Amino acid sequence: MWKIPENQLSLTNNQVHVWRAKLDLSAHEIARLETLLSEDEKSRANRFRFPQHKRRFIAARAILREILANYLQINSDALRFEYSDRGKPRLAKSMEASSWQFNVSHSQELALYGFTCHKRIGVDVEYLRSMDDAAKIAERFFSAQESQLIANLSGEQQKQVFFQLWTAKEAYLKAIGEGLAGSLAGVDIDIDLDQAKSLALLSIKEDVQAAASWLMYPCVPETNYIATVAIESKTEKQQIDFWNWN
Questions:
Q1: Which of 26, 155, 204, 209 is most deeply packed, by most CB within 10 A?
Q2: Prediction pTM value
Q3: Which own/partner contact pairs does 97-103 have at CB distance under 8 Å and 24+ positions apart?
Q4: Checking phi first, is residue 130 left (phi over 0); if not, alpha (psi -120 to 50) or beta?
Q5: For 124-244, which CATH superfamily applies?
Q6: Which of 66, 95, 68 has its CA nearest to residue 82?
Q7: Nearest one of 191, 21, 212, 16 to 121, comparing CA atoms
């Protein structure tokens, strides 16, 4: 499913592109990627206390620049970003590419990127770490129905379903620019365990109509990781392609 592009990629209005990238790169490659960052991005990188967190930030942000620059056919250092009140990056209006929508997520040594034209998009990826308290966390942050589902499961299945629901909620909240500042419980997700954990957004703060224009795509970007892509779309299906950054 995850392909390496052979030629220059383009993105049309009915397409969604999702990229994955490994962040455990050599010191030489990290040094190269750091040169692509703006001064404010370098400043943010230097504020990280632990070296691995700084390295992951540098890699994730510079790879975003490389992918965007490749699509737009410009130099990476020509990209200009603006930020929402919650810190979500977007291309600056001065770049005349405001129709482009993108989102980034990274967990441990893996980054996930989503790109569309005109449609809001959110992505979230999580490393499948041990979750002895999954039921308690679900009871606090999930809807009553979702919490009961988690409580009825156990072991590896409980962990998988917990993170699939978590990434779905986060992907939606990131798409609308709220992230964890939004209410996880207010994002009601339906998950079909019999159909490869297919997802649907049921309601947003109990508003079914508000959820009708969103699509959810679960995916497994790498062993021991789980992710969801949320796309604002009034059609029943989107053309979605999955790419490897190399």
A1: 204
A2: 0.94
A3: 97/72, 100/11, 100/68, 100/71, 100/72, 102/64, 102/68, 103/171, 103/174, 103/175
A4: beta
A5: 4'-phosphopantetheinyl transferase domain (3.90.470.20)
A6: 95
A7: 16
d(CA 156, CA 162): 10
- Domain residue ranges in the chain: 124-244
Strand partners, 18: 114, 242
Count of CA atoms in the C-beta half-sphere (13 A) of 232: 18
In angstroms, the CA 214 to CA 86 distance is 21
Of 29, 105, 8, the C-alpha closest to 64 is 105
* 67, 102 Cβ separation under 8 angstroms: no
pLDDT tens digits, one per residue of 129-139: 988 899 999 99
Instruction: Give the 3-state DSSP-derived string for the chain, with helices as H, strands as E and coil as C.
Output: CEECCCCCCCCCCCEEEEEEEECCCCHHHHHHHHCCCCHHHHHHHHCCCCHHHHHHHHHHHHHHHHHHHHHHCCCHHHCCEEECCCCCEEECHHHCCCCEEEEEEEECCEEEEEEEECCCEEEEEEECCCCCCHHHHHHHHCCHHHHHHHHHCCHHHHHHHHHHHHHHHHHHHHHCCCHHHCCCCCEEEEEECCCCCEEEEEEECCEHHHHCCEEEEEECCCCCEEEEEEEECCCCCCEEEEEECC
